[in-house]
Write a structure and sequence with these properties.
- This protein is of the alpha+beta class.
- Helices cover 22% and strands 29% of the residues.
- The protein has 2 domains: 93 residues, 2-Layer Sandwich (Alpha-Beta Plaits), CATH 3.30.70; 135 residues, Pseudouridine synthase I, catalytic domain, C-terminal subdomain (Alpha-Beta Plaits), CATH 3.30.70.
- The protein contains 5 helices and 10 strands, in the order βαββαβββαβββααβ.
- A hairpin with an 8-residue loop joins β2 and β3.
- α3 packs across α4.
- The protein is globular and about 55 Å long.
- The two termini are 21 Å apart.
- The model has no long low-confidence stretch (mean pLDDT 95).
Length: 244
């Protein structure tokens, strides 16, 4: 049987999603919990990996099992063995052809930035920028990324392979000194969201013009974006599938 789960987590005290030796990870904690139920080693497959200190509102993963618990019992059982910074929101049986990563059609990320005075209680959850930014300039610059592009200049230096992605939405909203960047695309490479947001912040701070970002984008990796927003403000908000 294949079980699909939706999980929310606070990434502050994790070394990212992917399991690592001697490091606390989201995948590691979930697999330990499921092993106590299945009584065998069980590997989970997520829609994608999040980096250290990055959060998720609705991350998706699946696993295969020979146990036939009621769906709601899976949710209760896994949560029982999880630490309090990870929580299973939903668990349901799905067709064996479903894959959390390969069946995903779109992903939505949000990035939160504060232009207000430093707040120690929010430092793990909102990037404490502490200065005003030009919202109109940022919105105008964000438009250059909409559509299908080779985002090689805005990905991790150590990543190769297909860097062509389609960005459907890049919205920027401000309310009470908190700026929310909302990005929806058919996929994102490692550090891509943080590089895109980091570049836009530079435009909003009047340090570079949008033409500089366009030059990087059109170089298809030859001119790398050196601006990377901090991980603390980043959230995997939603993963969309055909049935959504």
């Amino acid at each position: 049987m294949r079980v699909k789960c939706i999980v929310s987590y606070d990434g502050s005290r994790f070394h990212g999603f992917q399991v690592q030796n001697r490091e606390r990870t989201i995948q590691g904690e979930i697999q330990k919990a499921i092993k106590k139920i299945n009584e065998v080693e069980t590997v989970i497959h997520a829609s994608g990996r999040t980096d250290a200190k990055v959060h998720a509102v609705h991350q998706v993963f699946h696993f295969d099992t020979e146990k036939t618990l009621p769906e709601m019992q899976w949710k209760r059982a896994i949560n029982h063995f999880l630490p309090n910074d990870i929580y299973i929101l939903d668990a349901q049986y799905v067709d064996e052809n479903f894959h959390s990563r390969y069946s995903a059609l779109k992903k939505e990320y949000r990035y939160l930035l504060s232009t207000k005075e430093y707040d120690p209680f929010q430092t793990n959850y909102i990037y404490q920028y502490g200065r005003s930014l030009d919202i109109d300039l940022m919105r105008d610059a964000a438009k250059i990324f909409i559509g299908e592009h080779n985002f090689a200049s805005f990905c991790s230096y150590d990543q190769y392979g297909n860097t062509i992605r389609t960005l459907y939405t890049f919205d920027i909203e401000e309310e009470d000194g908190i700026i929310t960047f909302r990005l929806i695309g058919n996929g994102f490479r490692r550090y891509m969201v943080r590089h895109l947001v980091g570049g836009i912040i530079q435009v909003g701070a009047h340090r570079i013009e949008k033409e500089k970002l366009l030059e990087m984008l059109e170089s298809c990796g030859e001119k790398k974006c050196l601006f990377k927003a901090k991980p603390q403000g980043l959230y995997l908000q939603e993963v969309y599938y055909e049935e959504d």
